[in-house]
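Handout, section B. The chain below has 53 residues.
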Amino acid sequence: MKKPNYNQDRMQRERNKAAKAQAKEQKKLDQKEAKLSLRPESESVERENGGRD
């Protein structure tokens, strides 16, 4: 019977953890970017309407 390689398991968990952290950071940046890209559009709509709804 082959002994389990705990070191390999640990390395895989660390890779998964790093990938999850990177995905979380990317999602945060994407949300921030989307929020910033919405602002100028709403300002341009206000200019077109003369500031009235």
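Note. The first helix runs from residue 6 to 48. Compare this with the example in section A.
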